[in-house]
Amino acid sequence: MKAPLMTLLVSLLMIGCTSTPKKNASAKKAGDFVNTFIQKHNIPGASVAILKDGEIIHTDNFGFADIENKTTPQDTTLWRIASASKPITAIAVFKVLEDSGVDLEKALNKPVFGPRGYLPKYRQIRDQRVYKITLRDLLQHSAGWDLSVSGDPQYEVYTIAKKMKTPVPASAETVISYVLKYQKLDVAPGKEFHYSNLGFNILARIIESLSKMPYEQYVQQKVLQPLGITDMKIAGNTLQDRLPNEARYYDDPRSAPNKSVFDNKTMGPQSYNGYVFHTMDGHGGWLATPSDLVKIANAVTPWNKGVQILKPETVAVMTAPVTTIGNPNACLGWVCMDGGKNIGHAGALETGTLSYFTRHGDGYAWAVVFNRLPVQKLEEIGLLGKELLDGVNGELK
């Protein structure tokens, strides 16, 4: 996702989330709203799941997962979830910290880089302020990189690979090395909220360093398998990489073709020409079903039934609002409302992916995924998000 859209995505995360479902909720009406939503916005397909008190009480599927083959989505259809991957990475970070037995506050305030940091191997660092970045800064988007100033290196994988003289496209580690070697921070660490995909790439590498396992494998074994989730994986990049049970993604028909990240010349749809998902793993790489997502949300809801991945006191730390960086809805890896009782996250990729999942303080969780992001002007994404979240939450009241 280009920097302007990611900046506007933050507004989608912040609005329309404060409605809390109450008694007499109608899960079917919420599903019907999703159906109306895709028809109104010319979205090919969607899938939704709703959970209450630890039990999935409703699933529904609409439109087409694959227009060309007239395939309708099923509950088992996998979808790219984009930045809805970030809370999954946050849960994994807290899980690896819990399992290591460290003091949580000390671990969060430990530096990321430098000889005593989580990732001492990165030694070519241009800006000395980088050594002040902590694990907490990465989780709360206050590490010091501002997309509106320096852009998003996570989507410059062709240029970075050429600059670093590595195979195209650049790996997640190469992107980190490039930024540290050639770029300065835009603001001092710990001072301001600036949404950062790079920060969650780095978090995935910290998980690997602490667990001695690849990021994807660690999440699958330690977070997903205990919940009975066996289908989630990091997405493939091209149409040929698409899994048999995966939705097909459709760029908004008003969007222009995109230059390939693989050769910097072949033109094609952004959805299959613009992304390298293993480079995006920790911030936007996962495939999931809505049922997977509500199970994950429920696994950090200590007052609900079902398997809990983290201790209640760890969830309290993860979902406590951060008051020092200028964003009242910031917490550690999530967007938080009502003192952390309501948490959620959205995901979007230009222009073929939109997703959202959330859990509320009264036992509800819901998730919805789409195979098109129907925006022409980037500022429309905030209004789209408000319509979606207000609509679903309103029907669940």
Which architecture name does CATH use? 3-Layer(aba) Sandwich
* CATH topology label: Beta-lactamase
Alpha-carbon distance between the two ends: 33 Å
Main pleated sheet: 6 strands, antiparallel
CATH superfamily: DD-peptidase/beta-lactamase superfamily
Give the % helix.
25-40%
Pfam families: Beta-lactamase
InterPro entries: AmpC-like (IPR050491), Beta-lactam-related (IPR001466), Beta-lactam/transpept-like (IPR012338)
Protein name: Beta-lactamase-related domain-containing protein
Organism: Bdellovibrio bacteriovorus
Describe this entry's structure for a reader.
- It holds the Pfam family Beta-lactamase.
- Residues 34-375 form the Beta-lactamase-related domain.
- This is Beta-lactamase-related domain-containing protein.
- By secondary structure, this protein is of the alpha+beta class.
- The chain has a single domain (25-396), classed as 3-Layer(aba) Sandwich (Beta-lactamase).
- It is built from 15 helices and eleven strands.
- The protein has helices at residues 3-14, 27-41, 86-100, 104-108, 135-139, 147-150, 157-164, 172-182, 197-211, 215-224, 270-273, 281-284, 290-298, 312-318, 380-395, and strands spanning 45-52, 55-63, 79-80, 233-234, 258-259, 267-268, 286-288, 335-337, 342-349, 353-359, 364-370.
- A six-stranded antiparallel beta sheet has the order 2-1-11-10-9-8, sandwiched between helices.
- Strand 8 (335-337) and strand 9 form a beta hairpin.
- Helix 3 packs parallel to helix 9 (197-211) and helix 3 (86-100) packs across helix 10.
- It is globular, with a radius of gyration of 20 Å.
- The two termini are 33 Å apart.
- Residues 13-25 have low confidence and may be disordered.
